[in-house]
Amino acid sequence: MAQFFKAKPNRSKQLSAKLSLQITSLDHLGAGIAQHQGKVVFIPGALPGETVTAQLTEQKKQYARGKLLKVERASDARIQPECPHFARCGGCDLQHMDVAAQRNAKADALGNMMSRAWGQEFKVEDILSGSAWHYRRRARLATWYDKQSKQLELGFRQEASSKVVAIDACPVLAEPLSDLISPLHSLLNKLKLKSTLGHVELIEVELGRYVVIRVTKAISEKDGAALEAFAAEHRVIVLLADNEGHCYDLKGEEASVAYQLDELELAFKPGNFIQVNGEINRLMVERAVAWLAPQPDERVLDLFCGVGNFSLPLARTGAQVVGVEGVREMVEQARGNATKAGMDNVAFFHGDLSADLSAEPWLGKIDKLLLDPARAGAFESLQWLSKMKPASLVYVSCNPSSLARDSKVLQEKGYRLAQLALVDMFPQTHHIEAMALFERC
Q1: Residues in the annotated binding site for S-adenosyl-L-methionine
Q2: Which of 331, 327, 261, 329 is nearest to 289 (CA)?
Q3: Binding site, residues?
Q4: Residue 7 has what pLDDT?
Q5: Which of 332, 309, 322, 316 lies closest to 353, judged by CA?
Q6: Which residues fall in the annotated binding site for [4Fe-4S] cluster?
Q7: Using CA atoms in the order 101, 106, 111, 114, what is the torsion angle rounded to 10 degrees?
Q8: Neighbouring residues of 131: CB distance < 8 A, sequence distance ≥ 6
Q9: Which of the 8 DSSP states describes residue 195?
Q10: Short-list 266, 159, 133, 139, CA closest to 210
Q11: Cβ contacts of residue 243 below 8 Å, gap of 6+?
């Protein structure tokens, strides 16, 4: 008898019956946490203290994920989202929660993750916070050209999708940038090259306001004139980014941008990393310098240094500072920033901080260490801690999971967690950033 293959049903994706669940807390990704039949259930959109109707959408051995259907009893922290694009745009996912409650929930999530990693309780009461709205000094807008309507859409990507949600304003962007979106959208649709445009980056820094347009073809004289008129009318600087990553002004001259940090001026190229929340960045730098308290006779190493955001303020204390960065272009920018500041007690090196560092000229005994890695963390770099032997180190983290993992390495190498602070870099979102001070026992 012939036998035919019949695929087994994917039980992990089958929908459950509707359930009434009690939400006890938020996880570090902003989802409500409930318990059902001995499993932890994660429900995006639900808030602590709420009773909700939900349906399980995915079931694993130890946990499940659910879809929020109805809020039966709302939390006192639940509010009406301010942005009309909430739940469609992939940017903000906690606008339905009072900002004070957001910060408390993030502090609890950070404390819980570090407590599990260390096997002892940590309660996070130190919170670096600022404006809850209009705090972003930089944003990248996506474009999408509709061949049928011959119109260009400008907005943000929908969550877990390539679809562009068209917007005309954004309440977490600096107000002057938000006000630019609608007239910029109108301008782009008048350009001859609109069908070939890439993303658009908006930047507001102390030294100017910028619109950076990704172009894939040379612009016509008419399009150039339209961009110049827009720049004059809205008092912005229009820059064009090409396929090779170079950035030019409308006269064809290579350009960069700079932000101020107290008396320091730090140049960077559009597309390269800087902290998008200038107010919080200033607080972070002040806190890092205060925690490390470098002395003039000490050597400080700044890994993942970028354009010198922490290195230069640390060098202002008189300490000898070495910064290391994996992006060669940013190393050159950092060197230029140090030269402009007149600092000869800081040096910058290019290096792959996930590779073998044994031959690096900067690797050796130091007094203090600062780490500001990307989301992947600094696990590989910490394997060389025995050669550096800093008395203290500050870890600036944009991912609490990698911070918790890396802090275990520090514990094993003889360091204790002396200070832990939540950094609310991105209000209205689930994103958790943190700063931790570790001291050698």
Answers
A1: 275, 304, 309, 325, 352, 372
A2: 261
A3: 83, 89, 92, 170, 275, 304, 309, 325, 352, 372
A4: 47
A5: 322
A6: 83, 89, 92, 170
A7: 170
A8: 279, 427
A9: G
A10: 139
A11: 216
Domain boundaries, the chain: 15-78, 111-130+277-440, 138-259
Strands 51-59 and 39-44: unpaired
Q: Report residue 29 as tokens.
A: 């990704």
Mean pLDDT of 384-401: 97
How many Cβ atoms are within 10 Å of 167's Cβ, its own excluded? 22
CB 47 within 8 A of CB 38: no
Please give the distance of CA 362 from its chain centroid, rounded to a whole number. Answer: 28
The architecture (CATH level 2) of 15-78 comes to Beta Barrel (2.40)
Question: Is the dihedral angle over the CA atoms 314, 315, 317, 318 positive or is it negative?
Answer: positive
Q: Which H or E run includes 21?
A: strand 18-22
pLDDT value at residue 17: 84
The token pair that represents 329 in the structure block = 């272009």
CB 118 within 8 A of CB 414: no
Amino acid at 152: L
Find tokens 């990393």 and name the residue. Answer: 273
Comparing C-alpha atoms, which of 242, 28, 22, 277 is closest to residue 130?
277
Fold observed for domain 138-259: OB fold (Dihydrolipoamide Acetyltransferase, E2P) (2.40.50)
Q: Is the pTM of this model over 0.90?
A: yes
pLDDT at 5 over 60: no
Write b or e for each residue in 99-138: b if 16 or more Cβ atoms lie within 10 A of its Cβ, otherwise e. Answer: bebbbbbbbbbbbbbbeebbeeebebeeebbeebbebbbb
Q: Which class is domain 111-130+277-440?
A: alpha beta
How much is the pLDDT for 14? 63
pLDDT of residue 4: 40
Residue 305 falls in the annotated catalytic set:
no
Cα four-point dihedral sign 55, 58, 61, 62: negative
Question: Same topology for domains 111-130+277-440 and 138-259, yes or no?
Answer: no
| C-beta atoms surrounding 321 within 10 Å | 30
Of all residues in the chain, the percent with pLDDT exceeding 90 is 89
Which of 247, 305, 398, 441 is catalytic? The answer is: 398
SS3 205: strand
pLDDT tens digit sequence for 326-385: 999 999 999 999 999 999 999 999 999 999 999 999 999 999 999 999 999 999 999 999
Contacts of 27 (CB under 8 A, 6+ apart): 33, 42, 109
